[in-house]
Design goal:
Elements (H helix, E strand, L loop, with lengths): L1 E6 L6 H15 L3 E6 L7 H6 L4 E3 L9 H14 L3 E4 L2 H10 L7 E6 L11 H13 L5 E4 L2 H9 L8 E2 L13 H11 L6 E6 L8 H9 L5 E6 L17 E5 L4 H7 L2 E4 L9 H8 L4 E3 L5 H5 L4 E2 L5 H10 L6 H14 L2 H14 L4 E6 L6 H12 L4 E6 L6 H7 L3 E4 L12 H11 L3 E5 L1 H13 L5 E5 L6 H14 L5 E4 L2 H9 L7 E3 L13 H11 L6 E6 L8 H14 L3 E6 L12 E2 L6 H7 L2 E4 L9 H8 L3 E5 L4 H5 L4 E3 L4 H12 L2 H18 L2 H17 L3
Parallel strand pairs: 1-2, 1-4, 2-3, 4-5, 5-6, 6-7, 8-9, 8-11, 9-10, 11-12, 12-13, 14-15, 14-17, 15-16, 17-18, 18-19, 19-20, 21-22, 21-24, 22-23, 24-25, 25-26
Helix pairs in contact: 1-14, 3-4, 4-5, 7-9, 8-12, 10-13, 17-18, 18-19, 21-23, 22-26, 24-27
GO molecular function: glycosyltransferase activity
Keywords: Glycosyltransferase, Transferase
Protein name: Glycosyltransferase
Length: 722
């Protein structure tokens, strides 16, 4: 790709350092990268020129000079013809929005580097600038923020709600690392002995950083501490005066800041507002330094369990936190700090994630419309599909909220737009807004998931200019008392979509019986991520210890939300009867609502995040559904984990299991009881079924197979005459 990055300058700051890091990594990956600057020069310019990345001055002459830089940027875009025009910070974002249409096919990308700015602390020009950026954000092809808080703040300022993805900053862990020699030299230069706890704040002097609270906490810390402030403005005459009686070094901008970070015992960032992804925090952690921060921007997510989060503006809490982290230094904690940055925020991850979302801009767009993004089979399959698919670009629209899956998708580079509509028929009030959204996004295809989304997505696609639509059916013999009117309406509308995809043959047969007559059918079984769902002895040990279950216990579990179709009552009746005959049997219920289910003794876990680990802990996995299943994910997931599975013959469960599991008639509690008793008494058979089940999923239900099938179906649909 030809990528032109546009920024204000290459002065010393977190955003500027990230621009240099990103440009270098994209160039290393083989892309043609250039940087245009409103103001030339800066301490980071040499790093770009030495990497062979050309710099183009836009020669901004002053604060109010925008016409000249815009004219020069347009000329540069016409001459250099980038495929991607990527702004960094508000002024640059405004300019790329205005200049990006100078070359047909050039994609405009906004870079958001701050979060909930307290604009009352800035002058009217800055307030106007941030609001103008939000107003034109809808014109960008993509918005990339380095923190979820940055996107949310952009939406509050007036940008289209839901626009944007999150790509965390990348930290150069080769440069920022523990360095005993630098530590000794820097502390000697500052006159700090090993017995003194050196606390550092590396941040420019700015209202958002709250140096005043840092200084107040320093005054309250007591003996044995010394403090250092580094960053633009920290050594200026206008900076807050130091409290009496503390050792404070004001260093201003520091070259080789990684050496100073390596000398610290504790890092601090007490920001009151405005942080997106605070680089200094992650860089200090990469140097093995435990840190204290406030819950602003991504600070808490960066720290994880390695440091302390304290309320903003609370000097007493800040001082107490760094007293708790003061020497003697804990080598294990230092290693955990660094490992967290290496695993989650390496430069290679920044480059790979950015490369992926920029490359996707050139692909045909599929807009997925789904009822919601809570935990469920359809929602999980959608998430796996859009993460893995490489032939298309994907945007996910939730008719309700972002749920548990939406934020995770945004962090993985998938744009998620939550419309916040009420459930049920009242969602029809959002039809005009959905149509406007589809008209703006201009997708090649609208792929809908679940009945309500099938209805609203089809109507909105028609209002947006007759966009092609595909439906996705995720169930089979549904209870007509609950869904009959909606299914009947959709049956009458079924000639409208160009394609209807069922995830099970049972689903296709049942919907045909209800009157569905689409132009084309496809049956695509769900895809299971066999890297995530796999035999895991360590997870088995961990989970059984947490549940207090000894190794000899036969753990029988059902993982399913509470819903009439799942028949928890039947499972409990059969499994309890089996446990009465074989006392070594213990029961587990997991899934939304199971924590409050009445009935006999069982571990009631509610919704579980680590469901793959839970499968590993079970000996027998049961799905007792009476009706409604299409492709029951729980069956295939448990099989992929090498578990022995018993399932009722609802939907395609029997076809999925084949000879690698046990099938019983739906609603037959006696047959389910006997199946549980038979497997509980036969550990060798359980092991053999688990091995066969794993092989069967790898052969027939792998995720790559499903993704390829979806992409093939979409291509064929788009190539078919309407």
């Amino acid at each position: 790709m030809r990528i032109l990055l546009v920024a204000r300058s290459l002065g010393q700051g977190g955003a500027e350092r990230q621009l240099v890091t990103l440009a270098g990594e994209l160039a290393r990956r083989g892309h043609d990268v250039a940087v245009a600057l409103l103001y030339p020069g800066g301490p980071f310019a040499a790093a770009l020129t030495s990497a062979g990345i050309p710099l183009h001055p836009l020669d901004k002459s002053g604060r109010w000079d925008l016409a000249g830089p815009l004219r020069r940027l347009r000329a540069l875009v016409r001459a250099w013809r980038p495929e991607i025009l990527h702004g960094y910070l508000p002024v640059a974002n405004l300019l790329v929005a205005l200049a990006g249409r100078a070359v047909p096919g050039c994609r405009v990308v906004f870079g958001i580097r701050a979060s909930d700015m307290d604009l009352s602390r800035y002058d009217p020009a800055n307030r106007l600038l941030y609001r103008a950026e939000a107003m034109v954000a809808g014109r960008a092809d993509l918005v990339i923020a380095n923190a979820a808080a940055g996107l949310e703040a952009l939406w509050r300022r007036g940008a289209p709600a839901g626009r944007g993805v999150v790509i965390a900053n990348g930290i150069d862990t080769g440069r920022f690392r523990p360095d005993p020699a630098a530590r000794a030299e820097e502390r000697a230069r500052l006159g700090i002995d090993d017995a003194t706890c050196l606390v550092g704040m590396i941040a420019r002097h700015d209202p958002m950083k709250d140096h005043a609270t840092f200084l107040a906490a320093a005054a309250a810390s007591g003996p044995g501490f010394a403090f250092v402030l580094a960053g633009s403005g920290t050594a200026d005459e206008g900076a807050p005066p130091p409290p009496d009686g503390i050792v404070l070094h004001r260093l201003g901008p520091v070259a080789g800041v990684e050496r100073l970070m390596a000398a610290l015992d504790v890092g601090a960032l007490p920001s009151r507002f405005g942080e997106g992804f605070p680089n200094a925090l992650a860089e200090m952690m990469a140097c093995g330094v435990p840190c204290v921060a406030t819950p602003v921007g991504e600070s808490a997510a960066i720290l994880g369990d390695t440091g302390r989060i304290v309320p903003a503006g609370d000097p007493a809490a800040l001082a107490e936190a760094w007293r708790a982290l003061a020497p003697p230094r804990d080598p294990a904690l230092a290693r955990r700090c660094r490992a967290r940055i290496e695993e989650n925020y390496a430069v290679a991850l920044l480059g790979a994630r950015t490369e992926a979302v920029l490359a996707a801009l050139a692909r045909p767009l599929i807009v997925h419309v789904i009822t919601g993004l809570g935990t469920g089979g359809a929602e999980g399959m959608l998430a796996r599909l859009v993460r893995r698919s490489q032939a298309f670009r994907h945007v996910v629209v939730s008719l309700t909220g972002p749920g548990t899956i939406g934020p995770a998708l945004r962090r993985d580079g998938i744009e998620v737009i939550a419309l916040g509509l009420p459930p049920g028929p009242r969602a029809l009030a959002g039809l005009p807004g959905l149509a406007r959204l589809l008209r703006r996004l201009r997708p090649a295809l609208v792929q809908t998931w679940l009945y309500h989304a099938d209805l609203l997505g089809t109507l909105a696609a028609g209002l947006a200019g007759g966009l092609p639509v595909a439906w996705s059916l995720r169930c089979s013999d549904m209870d007509r008392a609950r869904y009959g009117r909606l299914v009947g309406l959709l049956a009458r509308l079924s000639p409208l979509p160009r394609l209807v995809i069922a995830n099970a043959e049972a689903g296709r047969v049942w919907h045909r019986a209800q009157g569905y007559r689409p132009r084309a059918w496809a049956v695509i079984a769900n895809g299971i991520d066999t890297d995530r769902f796999r035999p895991d002895p360590a997870a088995r040990t961990r989970w059984r210890a947490a549940l207090g279950v000894p190794p000899e216990t036969v753990l029988v579990g059902m993982v399913a939300r509470v819903d009439p179709m799942k028949d928890h009552a039947g499972f409990l009746a059969a499994a309890t009867a089996a446990a009465t005959l074989r006392p070594e049997i213990a029961l587990v219920l997991a899934g939304t609502g199971t924590e409050t289910l009445p009935g006999p003794a069982a571990h009631r876990l509610g919704a579980v995040t680590d469901v793959a680990g839970l499968y590993a802990a079970l000996d027998i996995v049961v799905l007792a559904s009476r009706f409604g299943e299409g492709f029951p994910n729980v069956v295939a997931e448990a099989m992929a984990c090498g578990r022995a599975v018993i399932a009722s013959a609802s939907g395609d469960a029997a076809a999925i299991l084949g000879p690698a599991g046990v099938t019983v008639p739906p609603g037959d509690d006696a047959a389910l009881e006997q199946a549980i008793l038979s497997l509980a008494a036969a550990p060798d058979r359980r092991a053999a079924l688990g091995t066969a089940a794993r092989h069967r999923v790898e052969e027939h239900y792998g995720l790559d197979r499903a993704v390829t099938a979806f992409e093939t179906a979409w291509r064929e649909t788009l190539g078919r005459e309407p």
